Amino acid sequence: MNLRKKILFIIVITFIILSGILYITSKYLLLESFSNLERNYTRENLIRAMNTMERVYSSLDTALFEWVPWDETCKFIQDRNEEYIRENLTDGPFIRERINIRIYTNSSGEFVYGKYFDLENNREISDKESFFRDLIANNRCLTEHKDIESSIKGIILLKEGPLAVTSRPILTTDYKGPIRGSVIIGRFLTDKEIKNICKEVHLNLSLFLLKDPEVPEEVLKNLARKEIVTIQTLNEKVISGYIILYDIYKKPVLVLKVDINRDIYKYGQKSIRYFLLSFLFIGVIVSLITLIFMDKFILSRLINLSSMLNTISKTGDLKERISLAGQDELTILAKSINEMLRAFEDSQEELNKSIMSSITAQIAVLNRRGIITSVNESWEKFSRERNDKKDCVSDMGKSYVTIWADETGELSIKKAEVLDGIRDVLEGTHKYFSCEYQCTLPSRKVWFLLNVTPLAGKKGGTVISLVDITERKKAEEELFLMEKQLRQVQKLEAIGTLAGGIAHDFNNILTAIIGHTEICLILYGKGNPGLTDNLERILIACRRATDLTKQILTFSRQSEQEKQIIEVRPIIKEVIKLMRATLPSTIEIRENISVTSDIILGDSTQLYQIIMNLCTNAAHSMKEKGGILEINLTEVEIVEETQVDDLKSGSYINLIVKDTGSGIPLEIIDKIFDPFFSTKPQGEGTGLGLSVVHGIVKSHGGTIQVHSASGKGSEFYVFIPSAKKIVNNLETIELSQYEPFKLKILFVDDEENIVHIGKEILAVLGCKVTVSTSSKEALEIFSMTPEKFDLVITDFIMPHMTGLDLTEELLKINPSIPVILSTGFEKTIPLEKIRSSGIKEILNKPITIKNMIETIKKVLR
Fold first, then answer.
1. Which candidate, 313, 458, 468, 760, has a CA 20 to 30 Å from the CA of 1?
2. CB-hemisphere CA count at 13 Å for 573?
3. Per-residue pLDDT tens over the stretch 460-488
4. Are 821 and 794 members of one domain?
5. Helices 300-315 and 329-358 meet at what angle, rounded to 10?
6. End-to-end CA, the chain
7. What is the pTM assigned to this prediction?
């Protein structure tokens, strides 16, 4: 088939296909668009109608809002005076606001007064008290307002018909509680009311019950799929939309229907028919004219142009040129082709050179015999560096075998793999070869990625590229080290979590030991000095264990701890005591504490970490030859003349830790505070110690300096702002001096031992105690007789229901019951959360008689 017949065939087929596509598009897509537009228009009108229904509720709520915050209404709820009814409950507001019912209830939800008004006949209907009481009894939520701003509005379905209703709490004129009761007003959604809505929105609306037979089945199916809007085409003239209306209980009860004339769809049909007929007529005329002119002015000349191009293609001679008469685009095309042939001939070689030189990777082109025929500039630089010569003979003309050979003629790197890979690609047995290797150059070590790919074309050959991946290899090595360090950090976090759990359980054990010891001391200590002495020694040991437990709990926390007034001297003594027990005798510890005041505002555990880390590092530097570890504590005054780093002027505590160990090399001294930097052998350090110390010191508003040199030991200077000592004037209670509380207490803890000792302690304090090891059981006990208890003490962490959850439920039953929360994690619970939950005080574990007395006294103040 020649070109003319093909074009004729293409035009005919194209016209037929386009006509068919246009017909299908017009009929299904465009007409569907009109249909969708019609459905969207219906949906918008449904939304308008539903919004109008919402305005009905809002208008009722607005009308009601004028009556509820009024002292007269509050008084009426109490005395039900007739004057209020005569002056305020006339027919006028019912007619003006279109209200059918108004009901008043007291704070208990009991019926006080109601009025039923017939809007169609404009008259009051009496003897409706049973109707009002049934309405309130069946819809208790209308009288149950949680706060003074509460407003309940919506639809309720009655046997008399759907009722738009709103309810608000009765308040004083200045909008204050407590809530005295509720006022409920409502309007029946009668046919007349729906007609009024139709006039307002200019739509044809209907309202049906959900179970009405006139409601289409598709509406119910869509409702089951949580779709509240349904659009149905009834016929060619009308389209209907249905939307579900929910009552105040969020249950579907009504269906609102809107009927819309299908003017949009009819207009779309007419437009599409006119468009199709116009397209068919114009298309036939244009196709005939196009075919005639195309044959005369384009096809014949294109055939001639194609013939000349075929000749050039067969000969492969880029010096051939095309000759075509005329002054039109085809002539310009012929000239452009000639220019392209000339430019391609001139620039082909330059293009290849430019591409080669622009590539940063080292590129070499090999012919079929493996001889290098071309290299780029990067390859030349690599060749000079490889041979350690500024001017060396080019690799052009050499065999690829010699490139990877040193001066002795032997291959230096992966000889067999590289040679075999290049040979396989040259011979065509493999389409691609790649490998990574390290090359030792005279000036450096380099990692290369070698890629060998075949050249397309009749001449064949291969392209070899070398990419420097040294930086990538370094990054991979650093990433590997970081992953190892991250695993170490995660291990430390897991240890902290485990320590917290152990300390929590140990607190419960200490509670039992301390409690029983104190009870024995009270009951049997008088007149028995030996027993008293032994029991007091037990208590001293328990207090030490308590301090240790608090340290462990603090260590296990990941959040910022609250800073307190602390003394530095006892912490230094504690660290020295521990270090003496663990260090070898070859290391001497000296201390020099010359301060009049060692008070700072900080965290004792973090300060302990600072001193312990510095001392441990100092001891590590002296572990082979021994030496002297010196700890000094002085006071310094920082002024502008003696400025230290960026510290503000003022008084500072200066902690100095010195050692006579190996010292720190000058080249790494600036890195010692970096995270994960460590000079210790693998497995002996995490690289976090000094980084943590630096962070803690900065968080305390201080700074840390280091002076050291290799073989001369190290000196660390820590500056922390000093603080004034605060005298604790809290009342203390001796165990031998207390007055019985005579309280009835509910004590809750999931540990049997804690429950037992708690009961014993409270019994010694003169209290009647009811105990429970289950928060749910405790709630049941309290709910049966809430007036039986004066106080509740509950644990914080319990299964099924925490202490805060239990407190919330108890306060719902008796809002005035005081609750004490017993916990060993008091610092981890936000104070705002404790106060907002209704907790009066915190009882810290381990529980002692002393802190039990103090905590109860605080609650009873």
1. 313
2. 6
3. 788 888 888 888 888 888 888 777 767 76
4. yes
5. 30
6. 110
7. 0.37
